[in-house]
Write a structure and sequence with these properties.
With about 350 residues, the chain is of the alpha/beta class. About 35% of the residues lie in helices and about 15% in strands. It has a seven-stranded mixed sheet, sandwiched between helices. It binds 4'-deoxy-4'-aminopyridoxal-5'-phosphate. 4'-deoxy-4'-aminopyridoxal-5'-phosphate binds next to helix 4.
Amino acid sequence: MSKYFNPRLASLEAYTPGEQPRDRTYIKLNTNESPYPPSRGVRKALDRQRIDALRLYCDPNATLLKEELAKLYDKKPSEVFVSNGSDDILNFAFLAFGADGILFPDISYGFYEVFANLHGLSYEKVSLKKDFTIDVDDYCKQNKMVVIANPNAPTGLALPVKKIEKLLKANPGHVVLIDEAYVDFGGESCADLVEKYPNLLCVQTFSKSRSMAGARLGFAIGSQELIADLEKIKYSTNPYNVNALTQAAGVAAVQENGYYMRNCRRIIKSRNYTKKELEKLGFEVLPSKANFLFAKTDKVGGRELYLLLKEKGILVRHFQKERIKDFNRITIGSQKEMEAFIDAVKEILGESL
Ligand code: PMP
């Protein structure tokens, strides 16, 4: 750290993204990307004309993209916010709405704590129940912003919309941010509640179900007032935070939504296959509604399994955190990748293939 660094941030612990090693080709099951490529329209949208137009600034309002998203989710464009990945939206939302403090689960997306610390906000990590579920009563009437990933990461467990509604009713004075990064893989979205609850901010991403993690595109749905607040922060940070190529790719992706939803169904099928196979091998596997599984076995430690799989060219995500260190988070890839993963696990456990 240089002597010039802001002393308030001296103890900030930055987020550690999942590894992206380049030393060999891996079956990458560690960062919840889609195994399927972007749709044809996305490829077409990134044409020569679009590249020539890069000399111009992009539309800071991302008008077309907001219109397409609004159509898809039956909202007004003024109820839609877009940003450079959903991380960007979380960052803005913490800054905009977290002044009274923030509640989020102790086991959830690691970036929540980083954003709270970055902005000097007070926060409380609420323990998940023994079975890793979230009890929404723990978050009711606490007079703080609430942030919940639904489905949660890395557990994959989902809450029904009814429970989210309870939270919204119990916290009218504060924003309830529901991070729906993984909702397209079998969860229930609360986007339809936006008209009824002005304190709801529903955040989604193109990184998982829409095969565009590298393009960096996230969006939020909320009341016009909440969206205007986020716009204020965005225009005070970087008005051009969704670049022209990403905007064009995003429009095409929304127009071809059916393709992506079909891919989600394929991923759910492979998830069911992988869960069953792991259970046959004696793993405990949480019932996931996301594009990953969270699993452990008594036969080999969490970190050891992660390392042995890596040696075999398969990357999964291990978190060295007390309550979950026996688990690994396994992204659902293509069916072929999942079969290779199961074969590798069998080899490691000395089971016959
Ligand atoms: N929320 C959750 C729960 C996530 O797991 C992730 C992915 N790391 C994100 C948000 C951020 O995704 P992105 O910035 O790629 O949209």
